[in-house]
Write a structure and sequence with these properties.
Blueprint: H1 5-32, H2 43-80, H3 87-106, H4 109-129, H5 136-142, H6 150-165, H7 173-190
Helix pairs in contact: 1-2, 3-4, 4-6, 4-7, 6-7
Length: about 200
Amino acid sequence: MSLPLSKRWNRVMLVFLSLGTAFLLLGMVWGFITGDVLGTGDVVPFILQNALLSIVLLLTGASLLLAVAPIVLPRLLTFFAAPSFPAPERAVITRRCREIDRMMAEATPSSYKNAVVTMDSLLDYALKTLRYQGSLADKLKAAQKRFSDIDRVWQAHRFRNRVVHEIDLRVSAGEAKTAIDSYTAALRDLGAIEK
């Protein structure tokens, strides 16, 4: 059974990286060996041989690592970069944002409440998609550097909590729009909706 090309390629890159690192380490270790280790009594030729072997090992390791660097570095940068937003989830969020626009157009206090709560849920969904864990508050703390105005997002989230927990709260159009705009900006910052 053969591996798919990408997995075989990954293994080849791993072998090259391992060999390059091994050669570099061998070159350094061999470079530190000095003196009459072999007991021949001829120290100067041994040091010259030692230096030549050390240089060969170091150059071999460096060339192997340089050969793999153009392929490995972009993969490493992609791996350690902030995760990008997947297209299917972006489509879901875009569709739900249109529903929220329709809720806002109804212009009733209950539709404003529903719009704010739904938008908060969308932000939670977006952060979960980007692999942030915990409650929405935990996710916001972990992802705070990704937002252009984290304070505005926190205000919207606190307002949502008031909407959910204060039964007799009447939400005005202005309050709802402010919260929705904050959530929309946060979703744009995450790449969940188009800018």
